[in-house]
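Posting this for the archive.
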Amino acid sequence: MSNNKKILLSGVKPTGQVHIGNYFGAMKQFVDLQDEYENHIFIADYHAMTTVQNKEEMEKGIIDVALDYLAIGLDPKKVVLFKQSDVPQVHELTWIFNCLTTMPYLMRAHAYKDAEAKNKEINVGLFDYPLLMASDILIQDADLVPVGQDQKQHVEYARDTAEKFNRVFGKGEETFKLPEHLILSHVETVPGTDGRKMSKSYGNVIPLFATYEEIKKAVMSIPTDSKGVDDPKNPDESHIFAIHKLLLNEAERQALAERYTKGGMGYKEAKDGLIAALEAFIKPLREKRAMLASDLDTVFDILKEGGKRASMRAEKKMEDVRKLVGVKIY
C-alpha cells in the first residue's frame, strides 16, 4: 500500500442480510475506490452491540460481513479489513473522549434524538455511539469517511472531538487529523420491488447473494399497471426498469428504454429479462461467497492480519495520546 494515498475509512455493522441496494448504494464504491485510496474497512461489532446481544447472532453477522465484502471483490492486499474488537485502543481513546465531552453535546446526535422522540429506553452505548465512532475514525488518521447525506453528522462529531483534543491537550498541534466526509453524489437511492427505497423494513429487497428461485420470486412480485404487450410504456414509471437499469451500461439502458416506449414488450418479457440479468450478475458473487465460506480459516487469517495492521497504527497514535494526557510517566 502506498503511504502517499489518502486513508479512507468505513465501518459496517454485522446486522442482517445484504441486498443489491446495499451493494449499489455503498459496497460497490469501496471496491471501486480501493486503488485510489488506502482503504480501512472494519466490521463494527462493538457498535452492533447496541442492538445485537446474542452470541450466535453476533458471530454469524461478523462472518457474513467478511464473506460479503471479500465476495464482491474487496482485495485484502489493497484493503485493511478488520474487526473493530481487534483494535482495543479504540475503546481506550473513547474513554478519553468521554471525559472531554459534555452530555448536552451528545444529546444533539440524530440517533439519540430519534430514540428519545419514540420514547425508547436508551442504553449508554447508543448515547455514546458518536464518540466510539469518532475514535474509530481518528485513531486510524482517516482523511475521508464515505457517508450518505443523512450521515454527515458522524464526521462532524469526529472533527469537533479532534479539534477539542488538539486544543485542550495538544496545545494547538494536530494530534488528530480533521477528517472530511466523502459523499458519493453519483450514487442513487436504489429502488425496491415496490418502488420505494430498497429496505429490509419494507420487505422489498433482492438479496445480493440470492438463489435463482429467490430472484425469480422477488421479480415476479413487482407490481405493474394494466398496459398490454403492444402498448407503449414509460420506463421512468416502471419498477422493473428502475432495477434493471442498475445492471446495464448506458447504451444498454437506452436500448431497453426504447423497447418500453415503442411497445411490443409485455411485462412478462420485461420481468424475464430482469430475472436473467440479475442471475447473470449475482451468480458469480454467490459462487465466490460459497467458495470463501468453505474455507473460513483463510477468511479469519485475513481478519487477523487486518486487525494487527489496524492495531499497530492505533497503538502508535495512542502512545502520543497517553503522553499528552499525562498518564504515560515512564
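Residues 45 and 65 are 10 Å apart (CA to CA). The chain has a mean pLDDT of 94.
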